[in-house]
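If you are new to this repository, start here. Below is one unmodified record pulled from the training split, so you can see the exact layout before writing a loader.
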Amino acid sequence: MKYLIGIDLGTSSLKVLLLDTRGVPLYSTSSEYPTYSSQPGYSEQDPGDWYTALVTAIRETLIATGINKKNIEGISFSGQMHGLVCIDRSGTPVRKAIIWSDQRSSSQVDQILSKIRNENYGLLTGNPLSTGFMLPSWLWVCENEACSVTKTRYLMLPKDYLRYKMTGFFCSDPSDAASTGLFDVTHKGWSKSLLDEINLDPTFLPEIRESHQSAGQI
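And here is the target side for that same chain:
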């Protein structure tokens, strides 16, 4: 028998679901991790905690069901949207991830919307800009953590970091990319005008592939 695995990176825990190729659920489990708040309005998580939770949940699934891992035909990811994971050239996080519920970047939101009218921004990105999005969170890091900026080579969304850890492939899908605040939903690509506005090299951002496309191999 062949199998599929679904992995969901939630705000409080990671869930793994094992299915057969007809879509029938066979086993599910979850593994929790903490959220860190060093100041009011701050919400951060350690990407290392996510990966530990992933390894724990998959190992439990394989042991509990006794299936041969070679019979797993596909793995798919979902997860908490928004967020910012800063990665260095070796693929190591340079700081904890700023997640979707973080509120520290309100002045950076105002800064962007003072340059691009709110209605125009919404037409471009398909979303009103909010704290916790990758764009204002990255601007906050740029203004407050020079050391982190110097070390950062790639900007990732939370679930894309997990897939990167499993495959070594740096990409995202249009749905999650639209939650960054940097994506042009009409042309389905990173917005050149926004990247120019904040002086961000587009190679810092992942390749975009459709949600149904292959995004790497284990």
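Two things worth knowing about this chain: The two ends are 20 Å apart (CA to CA). The mean pLDDT is 94.
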